[in-house]
Amino acid sequence: MTLKAPTHHISAQPGEIAKTVLMPGDPLRAKFIAENFLEDAVQVNSIRCMYAYTGTYKGKKVSVMASGIGAPTMGVHAWELYNLYDVENIIRVGTTGAIHDELKIGDLVFALGACYNTPYADQYKLSGTFSAVASYPLLRDAVDKADQMKAKYMVGNVYSTDIFYPEYDREENERWSKMGVLSVEMETAALYIVAARAGKKALSILTVSDHVMTGEKVSADIREKNFTDMMKIALEIAE
């Protein structure tokens, strides 16, 4: 079977999605980015409310599309964007729960790598454990831009988990923290794995929305609309 765009999950026609796509998990954050940062933005997908828009930012064609929650939905959408829409760069702009003592609400996390418990990479039947890592050119440009903006950030490992509500082992995040992992989220590992297989670029720029260890958190409305530094950095480095 030959696959081609549009798909069951993305209704955009070939050519309607830019080479660089920003991917928040939240569809309303995708809408917020399109309405507040893109010029002449046009909605190109609404299937399952995974809103996607294409417009321009400082003269560059850029798309933004929601990924939804977790590895499976990120994997589906990223795979189709890379393989069927000729996307070259996906930059995740999402929220994350801090497990590192030095991270505060609103700080940025650049995911150099992603530890994970998802079986997503099992499909490739590798004889060892795959390291899910960012594309260095995107990471370098993002860090440089963050320095110019004087944004507070850390670079390092995140933990991508399939389990939001653990049934038994509630100390797991503490053990990951002892290994230097910065924060917990659900999509980065799948994105990096799909990008590696497709030979494309990927980066996760995350904003701390809560601290797992202290219980501090912010509202959904703040998560949707207030964490703009990661959006600006991603748009500035879009190719």
TrEMBL record:
<comment type="subunit">
    <text>Homohexamer; trimer of homodimers.</text>
</comment>
<feature type="binding site" description="in other chain">
    <location>
        <begin position="185"/>
        <end position="187"/>
    </location>
    <ligand>
        <name>a purine D-ribonucleoside</name>
    </ligand>
</feature>
<protein>
    <recommendedName>
        <fullName>Purine nucleoside phosphorylase DeoD-type</fullName>
        <ecNumber>2.4.2.1</ecNumber>
    </recommendedName>
</protein>
<feature type="binding site">
    <location>
        <position position="9"/>
    </location>
    <ligand>
        <name>a purine D-ribonucleoside</name>
    </ligand>
</feature>
<comment type="function">
    <text>Catalyzes the reversible phosphorolytic breakdown of the N-glycosidic bond in the beta-(deoxy)ribonucleoside molecules, with the formation of the corresponding free purine bases and pentose-1-phosphate.</text>
</comment>
<comment type="similarity">
    <text>Belongs to the PNP/UDP phosphorylase family.</text>
</comment>
<dbReference type="InterPro" id="IPR035994">
    <property type="entry name" value="Nucleoside_phosphorylase_sf"/>
</dbReference>
<keyword id="KW-0808">Transferase</keyword>
<dbReference type="InterPro" id="IPR000845">
    <property type="entry name" value="Nucleoside_phosphorylase_d"/>
</dbReference>
<dbReference type="InterPro" id="IPR004402">
    <property type="entry name" value="DeoD-type"/>
</dbReference>
<feature type="binding site" description="in other chain">
    <location>
        <begin position="209"/>
        <end position="210"/>
    </location>
    <ligand>
        <name>a purine D-ribonucleoside</name>
    </ligand>
</feature>
<feature type="active site" description="Proton donor">
    <location>
        <position position="210"/>
    </location>
</feature>
<dbReference type="Pfam" id="PF01048">
    <property type="entry name" value="PNP_UDP_1"/>
</dbReference>
<feature type="binding site" description="in other chain">
    <location>
        <position position="25"/>
    </location>
    <ligand>
        <name>phosphate</name>
    </ligand>
</feature>
<feature type="domain" description="Nucleoside phosphorylase">
    <location>
        <begin position="20"/>
        <end position="230"/>
    </location>
</feature>
<feature type="binding site" description="in other chain">
    <location>
        <begin position="92"/>
        <end position="95"/>
    </location>
    <ligand>
        <name>phosphate</name>
    </ligand>
</feature>
<feature type="binding site">
    <location>
        <position position="48"/>
    </location>
    <ligand>
        <name>phosphate</name>
    </ligand>
</feature>
<feature type="binding site" description="in other chain">
    <location>
        <position position="29"/>
    </location>
    <ligand>
        <name>phosphate</name>
    </ligand>
</feature>
<dbReference type="GO" id="GO:0004731">
    <property type="term" value="F:purine-nucleoside phosphorylase activity"/>
</dbReference>
<keyword id="KW-0328">Glycosyltransferase</keyword>
<feature type="site" description="Important for catalytic activity">
    <location>
        <position position="223"/>
    </location>
</feature>
